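ok so dumb question maybe but i'm new to this and my supervisor (M.) told me to 'just get the structure for DUF4268 domain-containing protein' and walked off. so i did the thing. is this what she meant?? sequence i used:
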Amino acid sequence: MVRNHFGRLEEVDLRAGWLDEARDFTPWLAQTENLEILGDALGMELEPVSTEQGVGPYKADILARDPATNTYVLIENQLEKTDHSHLGQIITYSAGLEAKTIVWIARRFTDEHRAALDWLNQISEESLNFFGIEVELWRIGDSSPAPRFNVVSKPNEWTKSIHASRQPSELTDSQGIQLEYWSGFNEYLESVCSKLKPRKPYPQNWIAYGIGKSGFTLAAKIHQREKWIDVEIWVGGQHKNEYFQQIKENFEQVAAEKLNPHIEWIYRPERIDHLIRLVRPMTDPADTSEWHEQFEWIENNLKMFREFFSPIIKSLNVNEGGD
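this is what came out, is it supposed to look like this??
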């Protein structure tokens, strides 16, 4: 009989991994790959924007962006248990930065501060979300410590909204189909255990994901009247012109060979972003009998776009005097 040997999980003191909150933990968390770990716990994607972001005479730890809504996410950190000072800070900073999602991270939440976040979520409008996160470090034997983020407070409707599929009476017929479509796409992602995380569905014709750099967005879009679906990369931001030209000049031919020869490169100087897109024509998003096939096409191409373009986008750089 073969006996399995398993290691034993041991909790590690946070200070063994990060001696100082400002000098160690905040720079670590602000890295894209570590924001992805936090995003997995939150059920959303996060793109880094800045650290020590000025808010009047104060500084917020991390400012990130939610690519699905193009709104700011404030992240405030503590390596100790929560206190009143940081509760005041998250309210002050979120107001100053107009952040729509506020994430308070601490070693431990007191019952009073957890209740305070629950209350803020109850009285706030739907677009404003407060999260309380407890951070831990664990290891097995002599392995390197691994972080774990535990959600202890979240918006009341957060989990429900990710699976939302009902059509509110105030929506148009087109918006109702859009909401049902993206809700169905979320269910498809879960059914196939996709690496793409479900996004909160909205009654709009697109759904968005991060791709590793601020100003860039990976998206899928549907068009009911013209009957097509597509996957896109939005190239925006201060250096959008240089970035788009760099990618196009260096990778257009490679993308055609490795991904699809029908990828379109659309330079739009009059718009806020340029497009890299792949269209599936003659596809009706309103035909529910085709949804499984459409969802499969969208998921496959989103994953291919991310795997191919994300390393390229992360490596982009321009001279300070450019654009």
